[in-house]
Amino acid sequence: MALLLLLGQLLALMGHGGAFYLEVRELEEKCFIQEIPDGIVVIGNYKTELYDPAMEKYQPSPQWINLFVFVKDPENKNLLAQQYGPQGSFTFTSQSPGEHQICLHLESIRFALFYDGKLAIHLDMQLGEHTNDYAEFAAKDKLTQMHLRVQQLVEQVELIQKEQEYQRWREERFRQTSESTNQRVLWWSILQTFILVATGVWQMQHLKSFFKAKKLV
């Protein structure tokens, strides 16, 4: 019981994606950032809606509207670039930890712009063990409730380990950034001090030469 409570608390602190609602126009691209550890399966379930000015509300999109999905990892490498229908899901697996850029845009396969060109995207992002259908696993492998729960716990522990590794990676990156910033501040302070000393010496020499020229000293 204590293990289950601990796992529940740890999982509550971890991000598992989220739900998004985006209003766009045709060919308008919307992007957002999702922080993802490496080796995590991500599933995006979505549906699109088309604005009907006659009814003054959004309606389910027809089949001639396509959703284009582009995903880039923190190293700006393409993980996904694919076209989908008006409703469905897309999947990708993170290859490196950090901020992943996910971009969406809708496009009509007809020549004319549809209606007023206003659309809505409902997107639900699922990360890690939330992407698994345990009911399907149980039916396929004939698992008992106990075996299924053990499988869930094993996958949750693996996800926690990946999240801990990701947090350590973030801490290390933050430490390196802080050390680099502190070093730059130190060298800038040294440079400022040198400039002030050099300026003071120059002013003293200039005043000394001035007074000598005026025969004041």
From TrEMBL:
Membrane disposition: Single-pass type I membrane protein
PROSITE patterns according to UniProt: GOLD (PS50866)
One annotated Gene Ontology cellular component of this protein: endoplasmic reticulum membrane
Entry-linked Pfam families: EMP24_GP25L (PF01105)
InterPro entries: Emp24-like, GOLD_dom
Name of the featured protein: Transmembrane emp24 domain-containing protein 9-like
Subcellular location field: Endoplasmic reticulum membrane; Membrane
Keyword Endoplasmic reticulum: yes
Signal peptide annotation: 1-19
Family per record: Belongs to the EMP24/GP25L family.
Domain (GOLD): residue spans on this chain: 29-150
PANTHER family: TRANSMEMBRANE EMP24 DOMAIN-CONTAINING PROTEIN
